[in-house]
Amino acid sequence: xxxxxxxxxxxxxxxxxxxxxxxxxxxxxxxxxxxxxxxxxxxxxxxxxxxxxxxxxxxxxxxxxxxxxxxxxxxxxxxxxxxxxxxxxxxxxxxxxxxxxxxxxxxxxxxxxxxxxxxxxxxxxxxxxxxxxxxxxxxxxxxxxxxxxxxxxx
Length: 154
Known about the structure:
By secondary structure, the chain is mostly helical. It has helices at residues 3-11, 15-19, 58-63, 65-72, 95-107, 119-130, 135-142, 149-153, and strands at 26-29, 32-37, 52-55. The protein has a single domain (3-153), classed as hpI Integrase, Chain A. Helix 1 (3-11) packs parallel to helix 6.
């Protein structure tokens, strides 16, 4: 309940893209830390454009995400979120988290209809447009096809 909402709020990726991360998916190139969003080894992505590297936000690094990954994903193929268990018809690792997150919002009295984990994705995309980030870069960051997929949906 701590890292997945923060990752969603800062990155706007799909829940399953975070839920299936492994230790080897958190990497560094030069001075830039990144999350490797991949469908390797049987993991699932929505589409081919979803395969990408996403720069890790500096605030998440400051808050200790890299320390968390080092402590939980001891082996390269170990899950970053080992407590997530697959569920639903397609056995997605974020299935039960999504239900728990909605329950958490209700218990905190901040639940609103149609406001769920996926809302982070909408918020991040909206903020990127408001900051006048190039549409092609938004599509790359969010894993959409080039050509305005983000604007069409968000």
